[in-house]
Design brief:
The protein has 8 helices and 5 strands. The chain has helices spanning 3-33, 38-49, 60-74, 79-96, 107-110, 130-137, 199-207, 214-221; strands spanning 103-105, 119-124, 143-152, 155-166, 169-176. It has a 5-stranded mixed sheet.
Length: 223
């Protein structure tokens, strides 16, 4: 083996190890500090580890896998119960919001929800004020914000967001127009369409053990 080839292999191995270290540290930060933005978690992890090579930043999927492993190793006694609690709350909220055809998104759907996680729903109405009015009419105090979502790689649109708490759990509702039911926005983590689940699909997830085979059941439920 030439010296150049040996150097190339050594550099590749070092890069791979650093990607893994950053993914694991980012997962720890997300779990322990409630960081939800993958890019922010990766940058903070790289800074803490003193790794300056931008090529060493792992893909979001690598961080998500590291987060699942972190939860399996360190939160096996608490995280499944926190996830179950939020899925049960999601079902209640989706029934309550049935007129707006809610879809579950985010960590509660993906199975990585923890003590920091809100129950995130997409709700649909061509009148952007209708959902807020419905909540207020039922005595739900609401905080309003906005969120930019990507419909494609080149287009971002701003949508209303409604925040409230029920039974001490945070809820995060993004209000989208009815035609957005046909196609989900792009996930902030990558360029794939966001995974969303109907009430019936969430009920299937809740009825099954969310441990072994979770990914396969989630994919099957969302077909």
């Amino acid at each position: 083996m030439s010296r150049g080839e040996h150097h190339r292999i050594h550099a590749h191995d070092r890069l791979r190890r650093n990607r893994l270290r950053i993914a694991q540290e980012a997962a720890r930060l997300m779990s322990e500090h409630g960081i939800r933005d993958f890019h922010h978690a990766k940058l903070k992890a790289a800074e803490r580890l003193g790794i300056l090579d931008a090529q060493a930043l792992p893909r979001n999927l690598e961080v998500e896998q590291a987060l699942r492993e972190h939860q399996r190793l360190f939160l096996a006694d608490s995280q499944p119960q926190l996830l179950l609690q939020r899925r049960e709350a999601a079902i209640e909220a989706m029934r309550f919001l049935a007129a707006f055809e809610p879809r579950l998104v985010g960590t509660v759907l993906e199975g990585t929800a923890d003590a920091h996680s809100a129950v995130c729903l997409h709700v649909f109405s061509d009148d952007p004020d209708a959902v807020e009015l419905y909540l207020r009419e039922h005595g739900v105090p609401v905080e309003t914000q906005s969120r930019r979502l990507r419909n494609n790689r080149d287009e971002q649109l701003e949508y209303p967001v409604l925040l409230f708490a029920a039974d001490e759990l945070p809820f995060d509702l993004t209000v989208l127009p009815r035609d957005a039911l046909r196609q989900a926005p792009l996930d902030r983590a990558d360029d794939r369409r966001m995974r969303r689940a109907t009430l019936a699909q969430v009920e299937v997830l809740l009825a099954e053990d969310s441990g072994e085979g979770f990914e396969q059941r989630l994919s099957a439920a969302l077909r």
